[in-house]
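=== Structure Prediction Worksheet ===
Name of assembly: unnamed complex
Input type: mixed (protein and possibly other molecules)
Chain count: two
Listed entries:
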Amino acid sequence: MHSTPRPSTQPGTVKRRVVITGIGVLAPGGIGAKNFWSLLSEGRTATRGITFFDPSPFRSRVAAEIDFDPADHGLRPQEIRRMDRAAQFAVVAAREALADSGLDMAEGDPYRTGVCLGSAVGATMGLDQEYRVVSDDGRLELVDHEYAVPHLYNHLVPSSFAVEVAWATGAEGPATVVSTGCTSGLDAVGHATELIREGSADVMIAGATDAPISPITMACFDAIKATTPRHDDPAHASRPFDGTRNGFVLGEGSAVFVLEELESARRRGAHIYAEIAGFGSRCNAFHMTGLRPDGLEMAEAIRIALDEARLAPEAIDYVNAHGSGTKQNDRHETAAFKLSLGEHARRTPVSSIKSMVGHSLGAIGSIEIAACALAMEYGVVPPTANLHTPDPECDLDYVPLTARERRLDSVLSVGSGFGGFQSAIVLSRPERSPR
Amino acid sequence: MTTAATLPVETTTAARATAVVTGLGIVAPNGLGTEAFWAATLEGRSGIGPVERFDPASYPARLAGEVSDFDATEHLPSRLLPQTDHMTRMALVAADWALADAQVEPGETDSFGMGVVTASSAGGFAFGQNELKALWSQGSKYVSAYQSFAWFYAVNTGQISIRHGMRGPSGVLVADQAGGLDVLAQARRLIRNGTPLVVSGGVDSSICPWGWAALLTSGRLSTDPDPATAYRPFHPDAAGHVVGEGGALLIVEDAASAAARGARTYGRIAGYGTTFDPRPGSGREPGLRRAIDLALADAGVTAADVDVVFADAAAVPELDATEAAALRDLFGVRGVPVTAPKTMTGRLNSGAGPLDVATALLSLRDQVIPPTVHVEADPGHGLDLVTGRPRETSLRTVLVLARGYGGFNSALVVTRAD
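=== Predicted Assembly ===
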C-alpha cells in the first residue's frame, strides 16, 4: 500500500498531546452522557416510526428521533427562536461537556479557547420549514422574503452553530464548522486536536451536531434508496452487518467534548477520559455516494491514524465501526478493517452503535467518539443490536446483541461519507501512549 | 493571560515546510480566468449590476456581482451538469484552470499526495431551492437523486477530488466569509504534515430567490439601486454590501516539491491568525486586531514589513470602524496602503478570501496595488485607501483580512517566494 512520507514529529520540538476532559451528548434515547451510555450498554434501540411529520408519502418512514424540549435544557425563548434544532443540540451538549470537564471559563483564557463543530447538513430542518413558508409550499418561485424569520441567515450559513457555541462558552480563539458529510464528527475532533497540538489553542470545544429528520432529507435518501423501508418493525430497523440489512435509519443528535492539552489538564487535576492519539483522513476520489468494495482509502486512513498514535494494529482493543447498515458500506468497511488490521481484525470486537441510535449524518462521528470514550471509561464494549442473521461478506466479530466487558486501552473509530471522505481516529489511555 | 500574539509552541517557522502557491483558477463577476479578471481589476471595471438570474423587483436589494458569461457546457462533461449546482460547476472549472496554470498533471502524480480543502457558506443553495420546490409543490418522488449531495457543503471538495483522482487528506470549512482564508491555512497545515499538493480556496454562490430571502436577513445588504454607489466600504455613507458570486481555487504546494518539478511560484503563504469576537454586550475588545497580530507573528514579520492590506471592507459603518481602528492602531494613521478590489465583485462569501489572496499574489507578481472603486477615502477613518487608479509600488508582504457573520476574524499573510 502506498504511504506518503510524513514525519511524526519535527526535530527539536515538544509534542503537545490532546485529551478529552468533558463529554456532552444528545442522542436518540439518551439525553446526557449518562443516559446515552445506559442505552448503549443495555443494547436498547431508539429507532421508531417517524413522529415529526406525516411520513406516509415516503419510502422510508423510520427514524431515530430525540424527545427534546430546548426549554427543559435552559435555552431562553430568543435563543430557541434564532437557533435551528441542530444548533440547540450543540449548545446543550457543549454546556454539558464544559460542566463535566470542571473547567471554569471565568478563570480560563478565552483567547486560547476555540470552537470546532462538525455538521453535514447544517440547519436543514429550519431551512425546510422556512422554505415552505416563504415559497407558500413551493407556489412562489420568487419567494416572499417578508415571511422569513429574522434569523434566516443563521440557517443559510451553518457557521452560526460555532457562533452559538462560542457565545455559550465564552471562547474567543479559533472558531469554525467542519462539513465533510458523514465524517464531519470525526474530522471536527481531528481538526480541533491539530489546533491544540500546533499551539493555536489550549482548549477546544469540539464535536458535531445534526438534526436532519425533515421531509427534504427523507426525500433525498428515498431517491437513492439509502434509508431502510422496514416500517413493519421500526425498533429493529437498523441492522448493521446483518444479512437482512437494507439501508440506514436516519438519526439526529450531538456530541461535544472539551479537548485540552494533556499537561494543563493534569495540572488542574482534570478527569481524563482518553487521549486523541491519532487521526487520519483520505478521500476515495471515486463517487459522491458510491464506495469501491476494497476499502483501500479507509484502510489508508486507519493506517495513518495508527501511525500517528504509534500503535500497532494488535494494540486496538475495540473498533467502533461506521456500520451504517447499507449493503455496500458494511462490506466496504469489513474489507478496510481486514486490509488495515490484518489478522487482528478477526480477533478484535467491532460494533456499530447506529444499530441503536441510527445515523445522524455529520453528528454521528462525534457521538461515536463519545461512545468510545465511555466504553474505555466503563470497560464495556457496546453491542451491535439487531444482528441475528450472519452475512458471509461480513465475517468479523460484531458483538451481536449484548455488551461485553473488556478492558479497553486503545480503540479505533471510523467514518465514511458522501463525497468520498474516509476518516479514522484512535483513542488511548494517555499513560499507555508512548511519550 | 497570554499575550495576543502567542507563537505556536511546537515548532518554529524555520523548521516547517514552506507552502507556496503555484496555480490560480479565478471565476469572478468582472472576469473569467486569471488574466481577464486581473485586467478588469487594474482598470477598475466592476462586475456589479442588476440581478439577472431572477427578477429582483420585489426585493429591497437588487444588485449583485453575477458571473454572467460562464457557460458550464463549454468546460464540463454533460453528465456532470444534472448533478451540480452553479457554484460547483464554477468550482470545477476554477480547479481545472488552477491545475493547468500550475502545470500539474494529477494523473501522473501520487494520488494520496494530493488533497482538496474548500470553503463553503451555503452549499448549492439554488439546487436546493429547486428540489425544495419539487418536494413541496409536487411531492417527494419528484426530488432529484442528486439532492443528497449536490447542495451540501462538502460538494465542491468531493467533486474536485473525484474529477482529479485526489485521495489525500481533504476537508471543508464553513466560517462564513472568514472560512475562505481558513482553508488556505488548512492547506498549509496539510503540507506541513507531509501532503505535497493541496487544491484550496472557495467558489461560492447563493444568488437565487431563496438565497436572497436568507441573505436579506443579515441586515447587511445595500438597498441602493445604483451600481456606482451601492457598495462603498469606509465611505461616510456606507450602507451595506452587494452580494457577489465566484471566487478562486489555488494550487498550494510544498516549496521543495514545487521547486523539484520546476514550478513557477506566485508567492508563499507565510502567516495566518484567526480569532472570534467576544459575545455581544460583553464590553470586551473585538478580535480582528488579535487575528492580525497572530498572522504577522506567525509570518515572522512586523507591521513595518507589510506593504499593503486587502481589507475585509464590510461597508457596514460599525464594522468599517472596527477594521479601520485595527489598521490605524497597528500601522498608524494612513500608515499602510489599503485596498478592497471586492468593490468590483461584491462580497463572495467563502469565495472572497481566496479571490483576495489570488489578487494579492498577482499584485506581488506585477508590483501594483489594484484600486478600490466607487470610494474616496473617508478622512475620518485615517486610512490610505488606494482609490481611482492602481498604485505601482514595491511589494513584498501582503496582509489579507476576512470577517464572517457572527464574529469570525481571519488574517493571512502572503509574501514573495524569493
